[in-house]
Design brief:
Order of helices and strands: HHHHEEHHHHHHH
Radius of gyration: 19 Å
Largest sheet: 2 strands, antiparallel
Structural class: mainly alpha
Strand content: under 5%
Helix content: over 70%
Strand order of the largest sheet: 1-2
Number of strands: 2
Shape: globular
Length: about 280
Amino acid sequence: MLTILIDGIAYGMLLFVMASGLAVTLGLMNFVNLAHGAFAMLGGYVTALAMNRLGLPFLATLPLAFLASAALGAIAERTLYVWLYRRSHLDQVLFSIALVFMSMAAADWLVGSQQQLITLPAWLQGRLEIAGVAIGRYRLFLILVCAALVVALQLILARTRFGARLRAAVDNQRVARGLGINVSAIFAATFAVGSGLAGLGGALGIELLGLDPSFPLKILVYVMIVVTIGGTSSLTGPFIAALIIGVADVAGKYYLPELGAFLIYLMMIVLLVLRPQGLIASGR
């Protein structure tokens, strides 16, 4: 039971890292970017190719995955997304969905449709026993890394000048500009960091989720469920939702494998009926 709980927490942490960027762009910037999974896929491919073709160690590829996805996110925000901030959500959805299929076709053409496999370092393989509970080393690593990211994100948004400027820019762009805040630069940096987090999540998720050109569509469902259930007013709601989804998914596959992902969708419906505004509702 405790092993399943820890595996579920690790999976939920991973979902949160991949969903946090979408929660920020959707909740704080009011921008629907369904191509978020494409940046996660890029991070995954950077790690897989760097390990398999360049021989880089796993840990060294993680910063590369973050930076590559953040750089592409910054370029895309300045050249493509910036024109859609004032457009309707339907336009944003259609545009970002088109980007998803373009990224899948590009990955298939550049790398091929086969699954990308990586070999984790020996110290991340197998299980260790803590207080009589068998815990996967890699899942424990995911929990520690993702917990550190969660704390860092909360501190950046709540305690730093950048976080204060971002909140001001979201609340009222005109007033923020009047106070000398470069709203465009704030949004571009936020979008890049969100894309980088997606890339890092993609890199960390290869071992659990697999990686092929259909990756953006596969994770889009789970990421959207996390953001929908958690709400978009803060990162706390998606974090709690990711843990709930992660534990429920792992427990469901262990105890009721014949139901597949049915339990996840059932839980989403129940939670949305009980809390249609999300687990953490906006105070605005």
